[in-house]
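Hi everyone, sorry if this is the wrong subforum. Our group has a chain we'd like a structural model of before ordering constructs, and none of us has done structure prediction before. Sequence below.
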Amino acid sequence: MSLVLKDRTLKAISLILSYPSAELQDAMPEIGGVLAADTRLTAATRRALRPLVTALASDDVYELQEQFVMLFDRSRTLSLNLFEHVHGESRDRGGAMVSLVETYREAGFDPVTSELPDHLPVLLEFLATQPGAEAVSTLADAAHIFTALTERLTRRDSAYAAIFEALGQLSRAKPDIEAVTQLLGVPDDDPSDLEALDAVWDEAQVTFGPDPNAGCPQVRDMLANMDTPKTPKRGRIKEAQMQTFIFGIYPYIALSVLVIGSIARYERDPFTWKSSSSQLLRRKQLILGSVLFHIGVLTIFFGHIVGLLTPLALVEMAGISLATKQILAIIVGGAGAAAALTGGFILLHRRLYDPRIRATSSTMDIVILSLLLFQLILGTLSIFVSLQHLDGGEMVKFIKWAQAIFMFDSRAASYTEGTSWIFTVHIFTGLTIFVLFPFSRLVHLVSGFAAPVRFLLTRPGYQIVRSRRQSPLPHRGGGLASKAKASGNRPVAGPAE
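Answer:
Right subforum, don't worry. Here is the predicted structure as tokens:
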């Protein structure tokens, strides 16, 4: 039975806490990208993780292995075996691990490792395949352990401290201060004192007893939370369904309507640059507003296209860091939004408050312009959220999402988990504009660009627009007589026959 990976961050942390190897070093760029993109972690924690990611990627592998052993293998107070922090090497630990093994088997999880079942990398690898609520609940039961390990590693100036800080944040739990104090009350081991270490490790032998409920109640509760099926709250179910619809289904609906609707509109009812135009009224106001609005909107549109669809590998090859890319996006997007908002409000004021223009404006004209301004306001407000993620983590989420949409990746919606509500509303509004595009005057973009291309070879300099008349005009006679009649003049006498 193969399990589906549901939490890439937990998988990434599991790999980082594994014994260093050349394979791990090769995978560190991708692992670092996963951690940098997870907004469940604070910006400070994501920054604190960078030195560890860099070291694991570039330092000598043998030195990394030596450091790993000194930290986690020669110090019981820093052991990666979680149950050991609860009740040491007593026989109670055996029953707890028997239950944990059964939990793994029932879920179809078969870890390929020689480590004990309570080894943290093994547990994290398992939780990465489980529903989010179950994983969070299990991590919450170990929050006090993560806090104690963070403190001990900080005292040793170890970069691994950031990993346990991250696990504490992923648990979404406030650690039990009393339990943390009790763990920190145990003296730190000296990894260089091998005789003392032998005495410590020789205290008791692990016995896998038959009673899984024996021993520490904290372990018992942890296992109970893992064994008991979690019934998600109705609100969480609706939230997940909404997330899937907005980021996984609605994009394909919007893009389909945009493409098919625009083609059908062009073939049936081309919309010219001058159709339904009000350019003869308040011309100066129109020119100022239109220029600002179009420059701003086009800057933002093409900026989004380039920013979202450019592979991250190309960005790295260009020597542009995610932080630099994020700052550049804020600057360019902010300038474009300022211009577009200024021009848009000028155009909206002109269309609403000039009686003649208002009389010739359709409801869709006002709706689409108002919706565009609302979208620009949302985008501007999102800048303040982006300023809190200058490491580029939030941006990476949407890059992966956009590229996954065009690659027909079924996991597209999962890449945007944990994003701010303003981004969700911003994307939903943008997709809605795509849906309305063929039914509004925005379709002039298609007619304006498609017509010259279509008729370039046969009718250069012309834009062909099909008449809306259902029947042809009646035939009129030609010649001077008909022209004179039309002008009200007497016909000119011609030569005698």
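For your construct planning: The two ends are 102 Å apart (CA to CA). The chain is about 65% helix and 0% strand.
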